[in-house]
Design brief:
It is globular and about 40 Å long. Helix content is 25%, strand content 44%. It is of the alpha+beta class. Strand 3 (42-45) and strand 4 form a beta hairpin. Strands 1, 2, 3, 4, 5, 6, 7, 8 and 9 form a 9-stranded mixed β-sheet that branches. It starts with a strand and ends with a strand.
């Protein structure tokens, strides 16, 4: 058994447009932005969607949205989603990047939330 939950909604924007996209979404949603020096490709949109991390991510690809799913067992959650029809696209650090039926990307990553949040909001899978 393992557990997982939707952790984040990422607004992927081409690198050259990411700063402007973050400014737009911050103003459109009426929220502050937050950056972290260790992860400069992400600009957080603080409290844009309460309960979810929401951020603009600079990417070297086309604009899109994607979900991050956090789990206490990356391999098991990846296998579960592949069994449902997703295909594995690549891996970045400990994160597995999948493509869901319909073409949307999603990432499966180790738990990032505080333990009490993950325990309260995750679903258990067998």
């Amino acid at each position: 058994m393992h557990r997982s939950r939707v952790y984040a909604l990422l607004i992927d924007a081409p690198e050259a447009e990411a700063a402007r996209a973050a400014e737009f979404w911050s103003a459109a949603l009426g929220v502050d932005t937050r950056t972290h020096p260790a992860e400069p490709q992400f600009v957080g949109l603080h409290e844009a969607l309460p309960g979810l991390v929401t951020a603009v991510q600079a990417v070297d690809d086309a604009p899109r949205y994607h979900l991050d799913i956090e789990t206490d067992d990356v391999a098991a959650e990846t296998a579960r989603l592949v069994g449902l029809g997703a295909t594995e696209v690549s891996q970045w650090l400990e994160c597995r990047i999948l493509r869901a039926p319909g073409g949307h990307l999603l990432c499966v990553l180790p738990v990032e939330s505080p333990p009490e949040v993950f325990d309260a909001q995750s679903r258990t899978w067998s």
